[in-house]
Design a protein that fits this description.
The protein is of the alpha/beta class and 332 residues long. Helix content is 35%, strand content 22%. It folds into 2 domains: 155 residues, NAD(P)-binding Rossmann-like Domain (Rossmann fold), CATH 3.40.50; 152 residues, Dihydrodipicolinate Reductase, domain 2, CATH 3.30.360. The chain has 10 helices and 13 strands. Helix 4 packs parallel to helix 5, helix 5 runs antiparallel to helix 10 and helix 8 crosses helix 10. 42% of the residues are buried.
Amino acid sequence: MTSPSSQPTPDKSQAVGDGLRVAVIGARRTVMGTGGFLARQAHAAGAEIVAIVCSSYDSARAASEDLLANGMRPEVYAEEEDMLAEMNPDVVIIASPTNTHIDWIQQCLDSQAHVFCEKPLSTSGAKHCDDLIRAFSANELLINENCQWPFTLEAWQALHPRGNITTARKFSMLLSPKLRGEHRWQDILSHPLSLIQKISPGPAHVEKVAYAEHSSDSLDSALRFEYCTHSRALECEIILEDMGTLPPPAEYSIDGKLCHRIIGENYQMQFAAHANEPQKAVSVGDPMEQNLRQFLKRVNLITNSRASVAIDEDLIRRQYLVEALLADYQRR
């Protein structure tokens, strides 16, 4: 889900980011980028955007001009400069290309900055990510992957009040990424897996993995597997189809009960039980903004109370699940 609301509304009564100094890496990505949106959402939550980093001075200055309309005046940096040492941010939002994530995450750990990172966290391997996540926790730092779909479960429940995720046996999701081949699976798997982890929590492994794809440049692709925990096996189906439309279509179903995303004016999101019944849609706010606000709230809690940071076991497990599913794609 890479189409957040473009007009976050400041709520001073719930300024969860008050006092936090935030830097944004990749604030001007133009192809389905989220950096600019996340900067505005963090600002709306009360945080101060102190710096932005882009691939060049020109793009950084352009991003800065875009943010100026929302009252932000960040310092601008090109990627090769040491922004972290000069600005010492509390939080770094990493929205740069995936192949840059792991280096930025390591630099943020070295600089003692909390991290909110676009998915996927990294392509450097699950064990490397595991070690980094545990290192963040040991240093009382938060690291979060931008997986916002679990925040839509409230909408699913409102649409299907008799639905019960604790007994669900089937899950399906449709997404419309523009990438092809292994890269598209690498890019999107965190989304369905983060939802599946909420539906069927705890340690898990995957079985009966099967991909359906005519070629690596096909417009559509599908993945089926069983998600096995100690309590049940959840039948899962992920369908990817580049429909060539913006915003990209997206929906999921749990035991056949649909949650279809509708994006209206200014990217305001609603969710419906049927694609052809938008008049019955429900709104739960922008899931990405909810994810970011929850993260900033936790950072402030840790900062103000010196609370310890528990290891995010779901985040670690998700890295190994993604790795296992990608390995099956490579072997197919």
